[in-house]
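Chain A, query sequence.
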Amino acid sequence: MEICELQEHINHLKSSAELEALISHLKILASNKRSDKIVIKLIEDCILIATKIEDFKSRVILDGLLILQFVQQADKLEKSIQLLHEMQTLANKINYKEGLAFSHSFAWYIAKLKGKKERGKYEIVKALELLEEVD
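Chain A, predicted structure.
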């Protein structure tokens, strides 16, 4: 799906099911286009919708996608950490184990960027433990 098509779909989102379908396209786009202003805007628009319709599972995923866009920008590291805390809070609130694991994988990456090896090891082990609980 092209960026223009995604924006058009975002403008008409009304349900969690529609948002979940769109997120699968956003995941690919966010992985292929890091730090892209248009992709950041699309994700932020979806975050607003997820918040409005109280789709916290999608919100956790979208926060993660936004972290992917920000994490390699030194001036956005604090924003990434803030998003990480929001992810963890929401994932805990709705008992979303996969979302918690997802957040710990980002915490690992941030710890790695900051040179905190021990913290990074803790975070990646925690992510793996949470994933094992899901199976």
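Residues 3-95 form one domain. The CA atoms of residues 63 and 83 lie 6 Å apart.
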